[in-house]
Amino acid sequence: MTDSALVRYSRGAILLHWLIAALLIFNLAYGFLHDSLPRDWRIMPIHKAIGITVLVLTLARIGWRLTHPAPRLPAHMAGWERTAAHVSHFLLYAFMLAIPLSGWAMASDPNPRPLTWFGLFDIPYLPVSEAMSEFGHEAHEILGYAALALLLVHVGAAFRHHFLIRDEVMARMTPGVRVPAPPA
């Protein structure tokens, strides 16, 4: 393992992070705004396809994370900050799985709505009851708000590290930014 691998995330992790982040931001924005958008926009199939994409990419990211360890947290971080970082990352992964799964359950009710991946192929429905589909709908909405709050905490923590503490935490996940090797 090279010194740079010890201080920054791998290229694969960085690519997955920013790709999932962009897709999540789009889908969260759409989720919160869809009732006020014109009906003829027909963006729901795109929202669903992006949700399934987020689910698949999150599974890939978890696999990547298991085989490519994250860089160590800076030594100056207090114990509570380390715990908060680990808990928030765990919750982010949980939300990136639970939100698409709840949306998939919602779309799989006994009167299923069309579910395709960008019109290229059909996505099979989950075998859920009407009650489970309704639960998926409620969970999807609640998880969306909770995910937005957690995302704001995540971005706020990254900005805190970059602008206030002035350490390399944010740079480790930023493409094209060099991260100096830690002192020997």
TrEMBL record:
It comes from Sphingomonas koreensis. It holds the Pfam family Ni_hydr_CYTB. Belongs to the cytochrome b561 family. This is Cytochrome b. It comes from the Bacteria. It is found in: Cell membrane. Keywords: Cell membrane, Electron transport, Heme, Iron, Membrane, Metal-binding, Transmembrane, Transmembrane helix, Transport. Residues 8-176 form the Cytochrome b561 bacterial/Ni-hydrogenase domain. One of its GO terms (biological process) is respiratory electron transport chain. One of its GO terms (cellular component) is plasma membrane. InterPro entries: Cyt_b561_bac/Ni-Hgenase, Cytochrome_b561_oxidase, Di-haem_cyt_TM.
